[in-house]
Write a structure and sequence with these properties.
The mean pLDDT is 95. Helix content is 41%, strand content 12%. It has 222 residues and is α/β, with parallel strands linked by helices. A six-stranded parallel beta sheet has the order 3-2-1-4-5-6, with helices on both faces. Pfam families: Hydrolase. This is Dehalogenase. Keywords: Hydrolase.
């Protein structure tokens, strides 16, 4: 078996490493306004509007959430009660998926680990500290002035690492935010973490599928 030998392993954070709980919060906060049988679609629509918001010029992440939430409420004809700040304040409190700390610990002292997160500087380190492994670099959309999936986010990361797309293994549980633009950036080595929130996967983007971060060391021979 041949193993990948990247100079850096680069990660998406929210959803891939950190247990991103936007959907759970939405189900709780909107239980009185959205019927139970329609809630899954409401959550999906909120996610779609967040994606749409990050495709434009950079704006602070609290604005991204608040605008996306107001838009989905308008679309659904439900009352928006300015809950956006509640989501923003909750993000730094979220910890990792259960498989993450042990998986990262097997790699961290052998291959430098890097994060690029669609986050603000004031948020991300609280989440990173909970991951239980040292990171070589942590980049944010605020620093790059661009959110993934914009290619400018990946350009910022590679430029600041001083490497090319051939030097990294990019790991994410999201095709739309990470693996599709990584493919456009000619990042050949990609790992899709099948968390279940983006299915089906698409083989055209060329990736190694793993069930969780516990399987990541096997890709790099550790």
């Amino acid at each position: 078996m041949s193993f990948l030998r990247p100079k850096f392993i680069t990660f998406d954070c929210y959803g891939t490493l950190t247990n991103f709980q936007m959907g759970n919060m939405t189900r709780e906060l909107f239980a009185d306004r959205v019927p139970f049988e329609q809630m899954d679609q409401f959550v999906k629509d909120f996610s779609a509007y967040r994606l749409d918001q990050v495709m434009g010029d950079w704006r602070p992440y609290d604005e991204i959430i608040k605008t996306a939430l107001a838009r989905v409420c308008k679309r659904w004809g439900v009352e928006y009660r300015n809950e956006g700040q509640l989501y923003y304040d909750a993000v730094p409190t979220w910890g990792p998926h259960a498989d993450v700390p042990a998986g990262l610990a097997k790699i961290a002292d052998k291959i430098p680990l890097v994060i690029f997160s669609n986050a603000m500087d004031e948020q991300i380190m609280s989440n990173v500290d909970k991951l239980g492994a040292p990171f070589h670099k942590v980049f944010t959309a605020q620093q790059a002035q661009a959110y993934k999936p914009r290619l400018a986010a990946f350009e910022f990361m590679l430029d600041n690492l001083g490497c090319g797309p051939e030097d990294v293994l990019h790991v994410s549980s999201s095709f739309r935010y990470d693996l599709m633009p990584a493919s456009d950036m000619k990042i050949k080595n990609k790992a899709f973490v099948a968390r279940g929130h983006e299915q089906p996967a698409n083989a055209v983007y060329g990736y190694h599928q793993i069930p969780d971060i516990g399987a990541l060391p096997g890709l790099v021979g550790l």
